[in-house]
Amino acid sequence: MHVYEVMAQPIRRRIVEILASGEHYAGDIEAAIMVEFGVGRAAVQHHLKLLREHGFVLVREEWPFHSYRLHDRLIPRLERGAKRLRRLWNRRVGWNVSTDPLAGVVPSARGFRGRGCDPDDPWRRR
């Protein structure tokens, strides 16, 4: 499963946000998610299991408690996915902001780059 497919589910995304602050017991994660999303323990455990199977979280089992933390390689995986999207976007648009020496200096025909000023807008001040 792609890294963004795993993160697309709101419950899993919230679990990752909770774990970004540090290591937490499964019961604490379950309680927070159950209150916020109105789901049962089984649903939360399912999402924790999926995150564990895909290498997003690590579990430390000290009977009778399980504590979860984010895997150290999660953020680099997300960044690699974002870099891939940026490369695809730059090819699609045909303009690379990071290599364009005139970006932000010279106005384009449609106003300043990124501002969305339409020169054909009849309500625009002249």
What is the averaged pLDDT score? Answer: 83
Helix content: 40-55%
Shape, per Cα inertia axes: elongated
Over the alpha carbons, how many angstroms does the gyration radius reach? 22 Å
Uncertain regions: pLDDT < 50 for 5+ in a row? none
Provide the CATH topology of the domain at 3-70: Arc Repressor Mutant, subunit A
CATH superfamily of the domain at 3-70: Winged helix-like DNA-binding domain superfamily/Winged helix DNA-binding domain
Give the neighbour order of strands across the main sheet: 1-3-2
Report the count of strand segments.
3
Q: Helix/strand-derived class?
A: mainly alpha
Write a structural description.
The chain has a three-stranded antiparallel beta sheet with strand order 1-3-2. The protein is mainly alpha-helical and 126 residues long. It has five helices and three strands.
Distinctive features:
single chain, 126 residues, mainly alpha, Arc Repressor Mutant, subunit A, 3-stranded antiparallel β-sheet, 3 strands
What is this entry, summarized?
The protein has 5 helices and 3 strands, in the order H-H-E-H-H-E-E-H.
